[in-house]
Design goal:
Elements (H helix, E strand, L loop, with lengths): L3 H39 L11 E6 L3 H13 L6 E6 L4 E3 L4 H4 L10 E3 L16 E4 L3 E4 L3 E4 L6 E3 L2 E4 L18 H17 L2 E5 L3 H13 L4 E6 L10 H13 L3 E4 L3 E5 L4 E4 L4 E3 L2 E4 L8 H6 L10 E2 L14 E3 L4 E2 L7 H19 L17 E4 L4 E7 L4 E7 L7 H7 L9 H11 L1
Parallel strand pairs: 1-2, 1-9, 2-5, 9-18, 10-11, 10-16, 11-12, 17-19
Antiparallel strand pairs: 3-4, 6-7, 7-8, 13-14, 14-15, 20-21, 21-22
Helix pairs in contact: 2-8
The structure holds flavin-adenine dinucleotide.
């Protein structure tokens, strides 16, 4: 890893080269559009019958899948024979970043559920005459030619290109993921967690990754009278990050008066006695245990089809073009948390960057070209902001060995919820989700 001044230069250089690549892509697309406009005006109107659309199926529409859908919808030519079919069981986009906060702080739950639709280019839904079909369902299995849906009847959707963006930990519980597809149910689960924490005297949080650190520090900051214990199996908290962030996190935890236990793990809980047992034999009084460990990749759809493309950790191995690492399946791509592509700290930024690359490559492939764009991990992908209580946070830029930690003040209790709504084309906090769902259902 580079030293700090070189990191800055490298980061600026990377941002510039990314901006230039985007400009190049945009110009080349405009040129294609111009050629298309000229050639279509010279074609006679009595041309051949419309052909049946060929499907680009996207499984999962969170950070990765939704961005892939947007990118492909932006870059498919109007006369393309292809259409995009997004399959996503959730009724709303789940904004994970705020989940630890909303597990503690009441009254903002609705802000974590962003209506779908606004991030797609205007008019691109099939219901509006565009090329994006959206199905609210879960994919149950994948074959070489089709995906089958989980809902009754198991309808099959054939594909020519498949993008797997099923993420990690989607079946896990709060505070890492909301285990509910319906917004009202998800909000209720958040309220239940708030109540459990509010009524607890002795809160034990397991796992000092980002979710555990944020939840524990928010809880202690809001309820200083409670005993909060944070248990972590490694010696360092935030152990995947560099030493500066580890230190900032440890300082923030201890300054709030949280008891930190490292190098040990919770092995069982006795709810009747109100204690948890640690591997070391230690017992801790506990009336509320919150598990913040274990985000598993949702790779089973691909594991059944191509077992050799699955890594030991359960991630889907990819080539630099983000096609899966199986030469017999060149039309299957993968991006985001479910994929293994050497990203040091998988997060939304890296998921979205990968999704754009998948989008460009799939569009090229629909035009008969080879996928050329490559995902090369860069340390700027891994930047995060870590809250350390209700009014304090640190921004971390850098990798595992060196980096910057910039202390910041948190003024907004709902963190960056409003910004995320804007980014995803939704007006904070006007929920148009049911209109979107009604529109896509009416189309089916
Ligand atoms: C508590 C927390 C805080 C975070 N904070 C930050 C942060 O501050 N900054 C940052 O950059 N990143 C942050 N992250 C990381 C970020 O949320 C993930 O990297 C990102 O969500 C990955 O996006 P994804 O699309 O790959 O997967 P996911 O977000 O996991 O989404 C997967 C999608 O696939 C769908 N799906 C799964 N299985 C199927 C199926 N069989 N059929 C159809 N659809 C399916 C799911 O419903 C879901 O919508 C945070 C994560 C957590 C847990």
């Amino acid at each position: 890893m580079l030293e700090k001044p070189l990191l800055v230069i490298d980061g600026v250089g990377f941002a510039l080269s990314s901006a230039l690549s985007n400009l190049r892509r945009s110009l080349s697309f405009r040129l294609k559009l111009l050629r298309y406009a000229m050639s279509s005006s010279s074609k006679s109107s009595s041309s051949s019958e419309p052909k049946k659309p060929r499907n680009i199926v996207i499984v999962g529409a969170s950070m990765a899948g939704y961005t892939a859908a947007r990118t492909i919808a932006q870059y498919l030519l109007p006369d393309s024979e292809y259409r995009i079919v997004v399959i996503e069981p959730r009724g709303h986009f789940h904004f994970t970043w705020v989940l630890p906060r909303f597990c503690v702080v009441e009254g903002h739950e609705h802000k974590a559920f962003i209506p779908f639709g606004g991030y797609l280019p205007a008019g691109s839904l099939e219901a509006d005459g565009g090329k994006v079909a959206w199905i609210q369902d879960r994919v149950a299995s994948v074959s070489r030619e089709a995906v089958s849906l989980q809902s009754a009847g198991g309808e099959e959707i054939p594909y020519e290109f498949l993008i797997v963006a099923t993420g990690a930990g989607a079946t896990d519980s709060l505070p890492s993921r909301v285990p509910a597809d319906d917004k009202a149910e998800g909000m209720e689960l958040l309220r239940e967690m708030q109540k459990r924490i509010r009524e607890a005297k002795d809160l034990v949080v397991v796992g000092a990754g980002a979710a555990g650190v944020e939840l524990a520090t928010d809880a202690k900051s809001k309820y200083p009278e409670k005993r909060v214990v944070l248990v972590h199996s490694r010696d360092a908290v935030m152990h995947r990050f560099g030493p500066e962030l580890q230190k900032a996190a440890r300082d923030g935890i201890t300054e709030l008066g949280i008891e930190l236990i490292t190098g040990d793990r919770v092995v069982s809980e006795d709810k009747e006695k109100g204690i948890v047992m640690l591997k070391s034999g230690k017992e801790i009084v506990c009336d509320c245990l919150v598990n913040c460990t274990g985000q598993r990749p949702n790779s089973k759809l691909v594991a059944a089809l191509s077992p050799t493309s699955i890594s030991e950790s359960g991630h889907i191995l990819t080539k630099p073009t983000l096609q899966i690492l199986d030469d017999s399946l060149p039309n299957i791509y993968c991006c985001g948390d479910v994929s293994e592509n050497n990203t040091a700290h998988p997060n939304s930024r890296s998921a979205m960057r990968q999704a754009k690359i998948v989008g460009y490559n799939v569009v090229s492939a629909t035009e008969g070209e080879k996928p050329r764009e490559k995902y090369i991990p860069h340390w700027t992908d891994g930047g995060i902001k870590l809250t350390l209580g209700l009014d304090k946070s640190v921004a971390n830029l850098g990798g595992a060995k060196a980096g910057f930690v910039i202390p910041t003040k948190e003024k907004n209790i709902a963190l960056m919820s409003a910004g995320a709504w804007h980014k995803l084309g939704a007006k904070p906090f006007e929920d148009t989700g049911s209109e979107f769902l009604a529109k896509i259902k009416a189309k089916i």
